[in-house]
Design brief:
Chain A: This is NADH-quinone oxidoreductase subunit I. Chain A: InterPro entries: 4Fe4S_Fe-S-bd (IPR017896), 4Fe4S_Fe_S_CS (IPR017900), NADH_quinone_OxRdtase_chainI (IPR010226). Chain A: It is found in: Cell membrane. Chain A: Its EC number is 7.1.1.-. Chain A is an alpha+beta fold. Chain A has a domain of 101 residues: 2-Layer Sandwich (Alpha-Beta Plaits). In chain A, the strands form two sheets. Chain A has a three-stranded antiparallel sheet with strand order 2-3-5. A two-stranded antiparallel sheet of chain A has the order 1-4. The N and C termini of chain A lie far apart (66 Å). Helices cover 26% and strands 21% of the residues of chain B. In chain B, the strands form nine sheets. A seven-stranded mixed sheet of chain B has the order 14-13-26-25-24-15-16, covered by helices on one side. A six-stranded mixed beta barrel of chain B has the order 31-35-32-34-33-36. Chain B contains 21 helices and 36 strands. By secondary structure, chain B is an alpha/beta fold. The chains are: A alpha+beta, B alpha/beta. At the A-B interface, strand 2 of A face loops of B.
Chain lengths: 152, 763
């Protein structure tokens, strides 16, 4: 009982709390001021996809539909056709980022090392329209990765 | 019967059966690559090697006949090892481009590689890498992927009998190609491509458009010519991607022609309208389906009340299914109460012979028809019969057709002489001694003679009748033109014929009715009158009709003249049945939905406006047909054959007429890769044959100083028509051929099917 009165009179618990605060004032902070500061991304993080290009800058994708086949959330849509010289032509390569579960199966299935999971995650948009990305976007992402040295 | 033990399972088989067939009977699986059901055993790939007890060597299952008490082991460690090595040897040179190869997913080599668990080839891989051949409009050829199974070479030789491709060189240098590497000279039937187990021969129309694992398959009946081939429609998201065959299904036994295999792109065509149009003044305005029906209803009721029921006429096209045709005539006869129902088909010749009759016959006459163009799959049957050692095939035609290779005798005469020559043949049948005596005797004395002819030419029908009179056991095969040419007539879509070819009151003749202004409202279901030469001259009269309704999948030349146009479904978009030239009724199944109505919708909904309820479900309509159509009582809608009351019917003598006084004799050719006005909408078929072309003999060409692709003017009387030229030595000197059924040739053939014309080089 006496102890309780002592604590009550001298606010020891508040002092203890202030002590913790004081202790942390001299420690290195652990919070990041997102979005003003970048957070660290781990090696195996799977973010928004990118598509590799060949030496001529053309996307490496050959339109084999394997990523579309393997995708569990069915968010990849491909349309192909024969080109003027009888080559495989990719008419459409789209990923619905809002449906994607970022499992990385597409990356695993790709026989020509074209589609990859990138590291960026900041794709929040106010509407759903922007979530359907095409091959142009994916190639642009790859360029960004090369420039920023974030690629493989 | 022989007793064979396969993997311990005992089966009894006929002598001459191969181990493979016996294994199939025993339910034992033996991997095969170069074997095909329709082809002779070849034994090239050695994948089907089996062990036979008592024999030190391995045997190929596909070529070895069984003996009594034979014991076969199909699955042992030794065999597995050997088969694995065989596949590994094939994979040395085979490029591993499965992701970009169209066959990826349905490739036999891929399947076998997977089956034998080959993950690494033990030999040095040296994939071939030569350029891909794109010279053929329908078939892409990548010889690097070829495994030399020879299926393509064999089917082109054994079944199609064109021999366009063969093995070139020997040993490791062997490849499949044409003699001296010339461009492919073939019929584009695509049979070689359909049997290729790997991606060496690929469909260019389907090339890279989709992958096999996406496609849904619907079995249906081809909608072009009257052969009634079973096709597998491969589709995804209401888009037809490919038309395939199935060797185990249908009258065609897995054979298709260029039209059926490659002419499907018109179903997906962006030129197809999806909304109905109503003419307002001189302009067409888009309206919804109900709006169009209301317009038809209002105008039709106005015409009926003002001019009477007989002022309404219906023209039904063979594109309609039996069910639709039945409803159409029912609507006309019972709702509108008119007898003016027409189709441009014939009732002079009805089905008699079947594919079986043709194939098993040893004496055939093909008279005045290029059956390999008009009905290609029937053409294959004729070839099967013609190729047999003991068979006699006699062909009468104004030029050499591909049947020349198999015909015992090919009689080529100008049209004017052809009929006279056949008269001689008929006399020889009576016993007169002339140059046809031997042929006539062979024909007369055979068990099952077959006579193939064109049922649309009255003179030809008369000749068929004469043949029937002289040789009573002959099977007549009228090579009908369109998919349901026979069915719509059976369903009573013919002037003066109720369903089941029962005679009824005749309406006014179509031509007379329009000319004399007796017909005020014309409803054309699917027919393209504008390209029919018989009606070329009255086209402008159609503008004066109070109501002119056209339904067609495309905005056709006829639709342009109409007041109301309703886009309708093609054969891939509806259920129903077609009756082919054998009289065989086969069901088709809806594969895709392009968002357009069918002819059935149009009729049923229109009847509803008139206060009559017609059944909509296929089953219900079929029940009605089985009650009202005596021919179809108890018919099997999946391949049953209808028996007809007569074979040919023609009154009196028909005279062969040839108009004009020119130097050259013109006769109608059968459309190259086309089947009437509909297939012209196919981009791919039109790449090969997109416009009517005059075919001319090289000697005549020299005299006229023309080469391929020049233009010639045909002059008859005061009229001149200009067409492109193709010089071909199969044509007789002094004769020229030109296809009918093109808009450009309709005015010329209005003068007559056979003409004497003058030719002038067009500069």
């Amino acid at each position: 009982m006496a102890r309780n009165i002592f604590d009550y009179v001298f606010f020891t618990e508040i002092m203890q709390g202030l002590g913790v605060t004081l202790k942390h004032m001299f420690k290195k902070p652990v919070t990041y001021k997102y979005p003003f500061e970048a957070t660290p991304i781990f090696e195996r993080f799977r973010g928004v996809h990118y598509m590799k290009t060949d030496e001529q800058g053309k996307p490496k994708c050959v339109g084999c539909y394997l990523c579309e086949r393997v995708c569990p959330s069915e968010c990849i849509h491909i349309e192909t056709d024969a080109g003027p010289n009888g080559e495989r032509l990719i008419r459409k390569y789209e990923i619905e980022l809002d449906r994607c579960i970022y499992c990385g199966f597409c990356e695993e299935a790709c026989p020509v090392d074209a589609i990859h999971m990138g590291r960026s995650y900041d794709v929040v948009r106010p509407t759903r329209d922007g979530y359907r990305v095409n091959i142009k976007f994916l190639v642009k992402k790859y360029k960004e990765y090369i420039e920023e040295g974030k690629g493989e | 019967m022989l007793t064979v033990k396969i993997d311990g399972i005992e089966v009894k088989v006929e002598p001459g059966t191969t181990i493979l067939e016996a294994a199939e009977k025993a339910g034992v699986y033996i991997p095969i690559m170069c074997h095909h059901k329709n082809l002779n055993p070849f034994g090239a790939c050695r994948v089907c090697l089996v062990e036979v007890k008592g024999s030190p060597k391995l045997m190929t299952a596909c070529t070895t006949p069984v003996t009594d008490n034979m014991e076969v082991i199909t699955n042992s460690e030794k065999l597995k090892r050997i088969r694995k090595t065989l596949i590994e040897l094939l994979l040395i040179n085979h490029p591993l481009d499965c992701p970009v190869c169209d066959k990826g997913g349905e490739c036999l080599l891929q399947d076998l590689t997977y089956e034998f668990g080959i993950t690494k080839v033990r030999f040095d891989e040296k994939p071939n890498n030569s350029p891909v051949d794109h010279t053929n409009p329908f078939i892409e050829r990548d010889i690097d992927r070829c495994v030399l199974c020879g299926k393509c070479v064999r089917i082109c030789d054994e079944i199609v009998n064109v021999e366009a491709i063969s093995f070139i060189n020997r040993g490791v240098e062997t490849y499949i190609g044409t003699a001296f590497d010339q461009p492919w000279n073939c019929e584009y039937c695509g049979q070689c491509m359909s049997v290729c187990p790997v991606g060496s021969l690929n469909n260019r129309v389907y090339l890279f458009k989709n992958r096999p694992w996406h496609l849904e398959h619907t079995e249906s009946i081809c909608g072009y010519c009257s052969c009634g081939c079973t096709v597998i429609i491969d589709h995804e998201n209401n888009e037809v991607y490919r038309i395939k065959e199935d060797v185990y299904k249908g009258v065609n036994k897995g054979l298709l022609c260029a039209k059926g295999r490659f002419g499907y792109e018109l179903i997906n065509s962006t030129q197809r309208p999806v909304t109905a149009k109503v003419k307002d003044g001189n302009e067409f305005k888009d309206v919804d389906f109900d709006g169009a029906l209301n317009t038809i209803y209002e105008k039709l009721s106005a015409v009926i009340s003002k001019y009477g029921n007989d002022s309404v006429a219906f023209v039904i096209s063979p594109r309609l299914t039996n069910e639709e045709a039945f409803l159409a005539q029912k609507f006309a006869r019972e709702v509108v109460k008119t007898n003016n129902i027409y189709s441009l088909e014939t009732i002079n010749a009805l089905p008699d012979g079947t594919y079986n009759d043709v194939e098993s016959s040893n004496a055939l006459i093909v008279f005045n028809i290029d059956v390999t163009e008009s009905n290609p799959v029937l053409g294959y049957s004729v070839r099967v019969a013609g190729r047999r050692e003991e068979s006699n095939l006699y062909v009468f035609y104004p030029n050499y057709t591909p049947l020349k290779r198999v015909a015992t005798e090919f009689y080529v005469y100008k049209p004017s002489e052809l009929y006279n020559e056949f008269e001689l043949f008929l006399k020889a049948l009576d016993g007169e001694n002339n140059k046809y005596s031997e042929a006539a005797d062979n024909f007369k004395n055979d068990d099952k003679p077959v006579f193939v002819f064109n049922p649309y030419n009255p003179k030809d029908v008369e000749i068929a009748k004469k043949v029937l009179d002289k040789v009573s056991n002959v099977k007549l095969v009228p090579a009908k033109a369109k998919n349901n040419s026979q069915g719509i007539v059976d369903m009573g879509c013919f002037n003066g014929m109720n369903p089941g070819l029962v005679e009824t009151d005749k309406g006014v003749e179509l031509r007379e009715g329009i000319e004399a202004d007796k017909i005020k409202a014309l409803i054309v279901l699917g027919e393209n009158l504008a390209v029919r030469s018989e009606y070329f001259d009255i086209l402008n009269l159609l503008n004066d009709l109070e109501l002119f309704v056209v339904t067609d999948p495309f905005f056709s030349e006829t639709a342009e003249l109409s007041n109301v146009y309703i886009p309708v479904a093609t054969f891939a978009e509806k259920d129903g049945s077609f009756t082919n030239f054998e009289g065989r009724v086969q069901s088709l199944h809806k594969a895709v939905d392009k968002g357009v109505k069918t002819d059935k919708d149009v009729i049923v909904e229109l009847a509803k406006k008139f206060g009559t309820t017609l059944p909509y479900e296929t089953d219900k309509i079929r029940e009605m047909i089985e009650v009202e159509n005596p021919l179809y009582i108890g018919v099997d809608w999946n391949g049953g054959i209808v028996s007809y009351p007569y074979k040919v019917k023609i009154d009196g003598d028909v005279k062969f007429e040839i108009k004009g006084s020119g130097k050259y004799e013109l006769y109608p050719a059968y459309l190259r890769l086309h089947s009437g006005s509909y297939t012209r909408r196919s981009y791919d078929l039109s790449k090969v044959y997109g416009e009517p072309i005059i075919e001319i003999n090289p000697e005549d060409a020299k005299e006229l100083n023309v080469k391929d692709n020049d233009y010639l003017t045909i002059k008859i009387g005061n009229d001149s028509y200009k067409y492109r030229v193709k010089v071909d030595k199969k044509i007789l000197q002094g004769a020229i051929s030109l296809p009918k059924d093109f808009k450009e040739t309709a005015p010329l053939f209005y003068e007559g099917s056979y003409l004497k014309v003058d030719l002038i080089k067009h500069i």
